[in-house]
Design a protein that fits this description.
This protein is mainly β. Helix content is 4%, strand content 33%.
């Protein structure tokens, strides 16, 4: 197996962050990971989610993104597979002009209670650039082979 080239230069972006929790800053678990693990900040004790219950879990994190970037909050695959825990509005978006605490909406899709503990890794954070759209109203759209083939359908064999 060929290991990644550690000399590879990855693009980096400086983002201002305030951490009011006593946990480490979000961090990449591996060199080429796209998402950083984010931890729950529950100084008043654990939160138990019953089946189909959702809760806003605080992180103690506040960020200032540069204009043109968003922070995406995504589920952790291990929590989803092993416990049925996911981020309800996945991916959640933190806009560049938001300055409040980052909260994560977790939902329990399993049949069992799940307890979120202080310091537990609850989601992944991915910082992405985006493009603003300038709408161009028209009377017709260019034709394609697919045309109006809907969900799960490419219109082609």
């Amino acid at each position: 197996m060929k290991l990644p080239n550690k000399d590879l230069i990855m693009e980096s972006l400086k983002v201002k962050i305030i951490n009011r929790s006593h946990h480490p800053l979000p961090a990449y678990s591996t060199f080429e990971a796209a998402g950083m693990d984010v931890r729950a900040y529950l100084p008043e004790g654990p939160v138990t989610l019953k089946p189909m219950q959702r809760a806003l879990i605080p992180t103690g994190l506040y960020i200032q993104l540069p204009s043109g970037y968003e922070c995406q909050i995504r589920p952790r695959s291990g929590l989803a597979l092993n416990y049925g825990i996911t981020v309800l509005n996945s991916p959640g978006t933190v806009d560049a002009d938001y300055r409040g605490e980052i909260g994560v909406i977790l939902i329990n899709l399993s049949d069992n209670d799940f307890t979120v503990n202080d310091g537990e890794r609850i989601c992944q954070m991915v910082i992405k650039s985006y493009t603003k759209v300038a709408w161009e109203p028209v009377e017709e759209l260019d034709r394609t082979r697919r045309e109006d083939g809907a969900f799960g359908h490419t219109g082609l064999s």
